[in-house]
UniProtKB/TrEMBL annotation:
GO biological process: biotin biosynthetic process
Gene3D superfamilies found in the cross-reference section: Aspartate Aminotransferase, domain 1, Type I PLP-dependent aspartate aminotransferase-like (Major domain)
Protein name as catalogued: Adenosylmethionine-8-amino-7-oxononanoate aminotransferase
Annotated organism of origin: Paracoccus homiensis
InterPro entries (UniProt xref): Aminotrans_3 (IPR005814), BioA (IPR005815), PyrdxlP-dep_Trfase (IPR015424), PyrdxlP-dep_Trfase_major (IPR015421), PyrdxlP-dep_Trfase_small (IPR015422)
Catalytic EC class: transferase
UniProt gene name: bioA
Length: 412
C-alpha cells in the first residue's frame, strides 16, 4: 500500500492510480507503456505542451547560477525581468507584481491587498462580493469566496461571510442588478470573479459584456475588481487574458497555472498603482506583511520568462484561433447529439453536459466516464455531468478527434 494520500481521490473505492513515467507534448506515458492524451492539461496548467523545450532549457540554465534566494530584502534578475514583462503584457495599469507559489496563494494575496487598501485609506469597507459557483482555491480564505458545498462543508465554521451574486443568465442583467444594489451600500471592498469561465464550478461561461458591466459598476461605486485569471490566463479563452475580451483592466489580477507553461509552480498577483501606493508609506504598519518561503523562486521565474518569450516570439494568437476553430467543429458535432446539452466554448475550452437524471458531482456517472475515457487513451475529468476538453495548445486534429470520439462513444 502506497504512503501517498492523493488529492480529490477516494482511496476506499478507487484503484491505485497509474504511474506516469514520462510526459511529452500533449501526452502522458504510463509505467506499463500506455500513452494518454492529456485532455485536461494536467488540471489546466500546461499551455504550450509538456516539457516545452525552451522552458526546460531555461530551467537548466537557471540552475547553473541560482536556486532559492530569500526575496525579502534581496532580488534577482529572473524576478525583475519577469515582473517587467508581466506588467507590459497585463491589462493597463497593473504596474506592480507580487510573487507567490500557487493560484490559492495568489488569491489570498489579492484579498489581503484589497482589505489592506481600504484600511490604509481609513475606510471601513471589508465585504467581498462573489459570483455563485465560483472557485478560487482550497485554502480557508479562497474557499470562503468560493462556492460552498460537499467539498468544504466540514470547514464551514472557519469561513468568513461574503455576498453572493447570481450567475449571469442570458445577458447577465440579473447579476448586474444584484451587484449594483450591493455596491451602493458603500460596504463592498471588492468583487472577486473568474472572468468569462467558472472553471471548477462546471465550466460555466458568460459573455464579455457582463464582465464589462461589472467593471462599470465597480467604477461607479468605488469597489475594487479582483480578476482571478489563474485558469483563464495565458490564452485559455482565446486571448492572452479573459479580461482582454471585455477590454477591461481589473484593480488586482491573479495568475498562476499557465504562468510557467505548467512546468513548475509559480504565481503572481498584479496590482494597480492605487493599491501599491496605499501600502507604500513611512508608516511601517502599512507594509504588506505577506510572504511564502519560495516567493519568486528564481528557477520558476526563469521558466516563466521563457514562457513569456514564447508569447513574444511565436504566433500564439493564430495558434489559439486555430485551436478554437478545431474545438468548435467537434463541439458542434456533439451538440447535435440528444444525449448532450448546453454546448459552450470560450476559445480553447469546450464543454457540454451529459443529460442525466441524477446530476451533481458525486453522481456515479463521473467515475464511469473517467474509466471509459482512460480505456480510450484519454485523460478527461468530468465535473459532475459536465464533460470538457481543455487541451495543451500543441494538440493536433487527430489528438482532438481521439478526445471527442471518446466522449461520443460513452454509453450513459
Ligand atoms: C486552480 C484555480 C485556483 C487555485 O490554484 P492552485 O494553484 O490550485 O492553488 C484559483 N482560482 C482558479 C480560477 C483556479 O482555476
Amino acid at each position: 500500500m502506497s504512503a501517498v494520500w492523493h488529492p480529490f481521490f477516494q482511496h476506499a473505492t478507487e484503484p491505485q492510480p497509474p504511474q506516469i513515467t514520462r510526459t511529452e507534448g500533449a501526452y502522458l506515458e504510463t509505467a506499463d507503456g500506455r500513452r494518454l492524451l492529456d485532455g485536461v492539461s494536467s488540471w489546466w496548467v500546461v499551455t504550450h505542451g509538456h516539457r516545452q523545450p525552451q522552458i526546460v532549457q531555461a530551467i537548466r540554465e537557471a540552475t547553473e547560477s541560482l536556486d532559492q534566494v530569500i526575496f525579502a530584502g534581496l532580488t534577482h534578475a529572473p524576478a525583475e525581468e519577469l515582473a517587467t514583462e508581466l506588467v507590459g503584457m497585463a491589462p493597463a495599469g497593473l504596474d506592480h507584481v507580487f510573487y507567490s507559489d500557487s493560484g490559492s496563494t495568489a488569491v489570498e494575496v489579492a484579498l489581503k491587498m484589497a482589505l489592506g487598501y481600504w484600511r490604509h485609506e481609513g475606510d471601513g469597507r471589508h465585504r467581498i462580493a462573489v459570483i455563485e459557483d465560483s472557485y478560487h482555491g482550497d485554502t480557508i480564505g479562497t474557499m470562503s469566496v468560493g462556492e460552498r458545498g460537499v467539498f468544504n462543508a466540514a470547514y464551514d465554521p472557519l469561513m468568513f461571510a461574503v455576498d453572493r451574486l447570481p450567475f449571469p443568465a442570458g445577458d447577465g442583467q440579473n447579476t448586474l442588478d444584484a451587484f449594483e444594489a450591493l455596491a451602493k451600500s458603500g460596504q463592498m471592498a471588492a468583487l472577486i470573479l473568474e472572468p468569462l469561465v467558472l472553471g471548477a464550478g462546471g465550466m460555466r461561461m458568460y459573455p464579455a459584456t457582463v464582465l464589462a458591466g461589472l467593471r462599470q459598476i465597480c467604477d461607479r461605486h468605488d469597489v475594487l475588481l479582483i480578476a482571478d485569471e489563474v485558469m483563464t490566463g495565458w490564452g485559455r479563452t482565446g486571448r492572452l487574458w479573459a479580461c482582454d475580451h471585455a477590454g477591461i483592466a481589473p484593480d488586482i489580477m491573479c495568475t498562476s497555472k499557465g504562468l510557467t507553461g505548467g512546468v513548475v509552480p509559480l504565481a503572481a498577483t498584479l496590482a494597480s498603482g492605487r493599491i501599491f501606493d496605499a501600502h507604500c508609506s513611512t508608516d511601517r504598519t502599512r507594509t504588506f506583511y505577506h510572504s511564502s518561503s519560495y516567493t519568486a523562486n528564481p528557477i520558476a521565474c526563469a521558466a516563466a520568462l521563457a514562457q513569456v518569450r514564447l508569447w513574444q516570439d511565436s504566433p500564439m494568437q493564430s495558434r489559439l484561433d486555430d485551436l478554437g476553430a478545431m474545438q468548435s467543429a467537434r463541439l458542434a458535432r456533439l451538440a447535435a447529439d440528444d444525449r448532450f446539452e448546453n454546448p459552450r466554448q470560450w476559445g480553447t475550452v469546450a464543454a457540454l453536459d451529459l443529460k442525466v437524471r441524477d446530476g451533481g458531482y458525486l453522481a456515479e456517472t463521473g467515475p464511469r466516464m473517467r474509466a471509459h475515457f482512460m480505456e480510450k487513451g484519454v485523460l478527461l475529468r468530468p465535473l459532475g455531468n459536465t464533460v470538457y476538453v481543455l487541451p495543451p495548445y500543441c494538440v493536433t486534429e487527430e489528438d482532438l478527434d481521439l478526445a471527442w470520439d471518446a466522449i461520443a462513444s460513452f454509453q450513459g
